[in-house]
Records
---
Amino acid sequence: MDPLGDDTSSENLDQAFLALADPVRRHIIARLSKGPATVNELAEPFEISKQAVSKHIQVLEHAKLVTRSRDAQRRPVHLNPARLEALTAWISQYRLVREEQFRSLDAVLRAQAAATGGPQAKDPP
């Protein structure tokens, strides 16, 4: 079993998407996509306390979206790319289903237009 648990279980998905629902946490994720950072560095752009930023980080940690390491006196926060990839894969599976449904609908509309002598629908690019 994956050391992070089943990333696509209902509970794990709920935690991850609830964590990402907050704009401060999304900003933290965006910042961490550029590299690890300390709480002080993550708190700089916000007009909230470092303690509040720490609580946001704890929510992201609980959702397994970020991890922390120890580097001497520093405790940098790191993005967990495997967790984000699992969320992206979960979303993609539904996008692919919808795309296939739209392709099927396009084929039906083209066939119907050809049968009635109407204008031909163009194939999608």
---
Amino acid sequence: MIKVLIVDDSTVIRNIIKEALSHSPNINVVGEAEDPLVARELIKKLNPDVLTLDVEMPKMDGITFLINLMRLRPMPVIMLSTLTTKGADITLQALEIGAVDFIAKPTVQELLATQASFKEVLTEKITQAVTIDQKNFKLSDTLTSNKVVKDKHHILAFSGSKRANHLIAIGASTGGTEAIKKLLVTLPSNSPAIVITQHIPKTFSLRFAQRLNDNCQVEVHEASHGQKIKAGHVYIAPGDKHLEVVHKNGVLFCTLKDSEEVNRHKPAVDVLFDSVSDFADNVQAVLLTGMGQDGARAMLRLKELGARTIIQDKNSSLIWGMPGRAHAVSAHTVQYPLNKIAKQLLDYACLTRLEMQQILEKDCVGPAL
């Protein structure tokens, strides 16, 4: 039985969460707190397994409370966020500090229209959160500043890609915002072009891209329709559109599509990966930490078409759902811990086509984890 403590100043929201979780036989809401001071005492008394935490509360804001919590009593925390620019900034900061996930705080209208969906997603997030290794809950080393000074990072050396239009396609979900950041901050300004689908709400994707751009040597954009894809640039799918890559007259372009969800997601990693299948032999596809199975089947198709396919290993993943599913169907050519992936991407991009083919032939699937 998973013990959950709800921390939110709104009685209405607390009741919505309690009702949503009441249908799960494996979840027990052991308490609720209207502010962090009450929550602090209830944590000591009730010893919950997972916390849901509002980002904006009286007496002590959610960020200050989260910092204290990660220092004194690390545990899985799921943030309840408003879909505003301010809410996006606070939530992204919370993920940097150590929150494992977030869910959009529903309005009454949204709840009436999508009540079943909210219940399902919240239950799934809590169930996954409790499985995360305790070592992942630690106070961030970069709390004192949201903006990372670029020259303090070890930037990897890169002599440039030997192949025109060499492309890196990345998919991620739960834990992905931090995983993507840790990967991108080590890349030099002449890195191969990168396209990314991260499961994230519409309001959050622009702020996520802007925060990454402040921290990275590469230029990071929220992708726009028809945008030319260039080396040294990163393009992140908007939170409400599928991102595809189109190859026209020797040039790559971003294409955005407002079509149906795929694997319950929009944007979806499968959509991005499938869009690069026509030139798969010049692609490196990467699946990072994330809940679910989005990206696995399309990654397998890319592997069969000659792409190099990389998954984040289990030990370094917050949630080994997406990369784990790719591993289960042998969609990957290699797997690496997160801190090794950036160098592997650059090293491979330096190869000629003949050298690349030789590496692919030597790549062996790692042992099951």
---
Amino acid sequence: MQKEECFFLGKVVSKYSFKGEVLVKLDTDDPEIYDNMESVFVSIGNNLVPFFIDRCRLHKSNLLRISFEEVKDESTAERILGAELYLPLSTLPKLSGNKFYYHEIIGFELIDAVHGNIGRITAVNDSASQALFEAEKEGKQILVPINDDIITKVDRKNKTINVSTPEGLVDLYLNN
């Protein structure tokens, strides 16, 4: 399994018990859907290695307490501290309406209510407090906040996202 075929689920942030249990900080809005998994891929070096789960359960808000079949003591748990966990894209629940996964909208066109087509989405920048669409039009990059007040429609069939950007935002990028 390649990383391109997977999505980032979370990261092992600490050991939990002397029996090798670990705590994973999940990168999700719905942690409860992952409390009954059978296996995950753990990133070790440049490889995704399948790890089978004896038991996993939610541990406070967005932490998952996992007991792996392959990890039965503290020293083995220590070796996977900081490791990233992945699941196949095919296991993601389907979203509808204006909800979307960042990876699925790459290549969609951004259609603004005033300016029309303002570019093709090339990436999503979620490293800051406000996630942003990164779009490109005629060699210029346009950044648009990902916000429920701005997104008016997600059309998966036509690969478009309709937005109503704040006045002056698009002009800032296209008129320079």
---
Amino acid sequence: MLDTTPLRDAYRALLDAAATVADSGDPSPAPPTGEWSAEQILGHVVIVNAATITAVSSIASGANTTYDNRMALDTWTIERVIARSGGNTGLRDRIRHQGDALCALGGPMLSEAELDTLVPTLLLSNGTVLVDQPMPLRDLITGLAEVELPGHAKQLLALLPEPLRTGT
């Protein structure tokens, strides 16, 4: 069984960062050139979560699956998810529910054999291939907790004006 406490903690930190940005007086501060807005970051996370839930559910049902994050990088798809989620608040609610689902599905529900199932994986970031090889399902789940969610929490907080980031 996979301990999902780090995943739950990573979701909490991401949602806290998103709430901090939303409550800063400017819920959608302008990002630096080439970076995403708060809503785009959250939309991306929603898509990554959905892909991860799909992979977990497929393995649990005995089906083969793949994991490919390219849709989570597509700006048209991100904007569609933002609109259909209802903006910042809806995105945060969706992420909260997706996190609950992944913590339930990815932990006690899966056997060790399911967690060790190799999933053909393609992960890109800023046009660079990070992973293009089979990965155990457990690594996809722990990757959310250790890399993906903390990275986006930092990205959200970086949108705040300097005084709010440092508390001065």
